[in-house]
């Protein structure tokens, strides 16, 4: 459990992975627009860590200006159903809390 949390822990890694899962191959500025509140520094460092850990791949094209695209790896594709189930669980908890507080 600790190694899994190390790989996806923090405020920004899961939103980045979910955005890439939803949109497929995505450029840096597109990710920046999709993930509200993330700074350039946090996006860059999170992408670097996710790449180092094998969860995303980065492809740089030798064009002017340089174009960089990010995508999920097969390793991360195995993680996505787990994250979807976690999101579903979170919704259930919120709904049950709403129901409890309403009564």
Automatic annotation (TrEMBL):
Source species, domain of life: Bacteria
HTH hxlR-type domain mapped to chain residues: 1-98
Keyword DNA-binding attached: yes
InterPro entries reported for this sequence: HTH_HxlR (IPR002577), WH-like_DNA-bd_sf (IPR036388), WH_DNA-bd_sf (IPR036390)
Keywords: DNA-binding, Transcription, Transcription regulation
Pfam hit, one: HxlR
Protein name: Transcriptional regulator
């Amino acid at each position: 459990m600790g190694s899994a949390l190390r790989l996806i822990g923090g405020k920004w890694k899961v939103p980045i992975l979910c955005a890439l899962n939803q949109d497929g191959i995505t450029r840096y500025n597109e990710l920046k627009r999709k993930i509200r509140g993330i700074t350039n520094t946090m996006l860059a460092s999170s992408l670097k860590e996710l790449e180092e850990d094998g969860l995303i791949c980065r492809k740089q094209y030798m064009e002017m200006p340089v174009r960089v695209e990010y995508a999920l790896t097969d390793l991360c594709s195995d993680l996505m159903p787990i994250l979807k189930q976690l999101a579903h669980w979170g919704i259930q908890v919120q709904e049950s809390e709403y129901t409890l507080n309403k009564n």
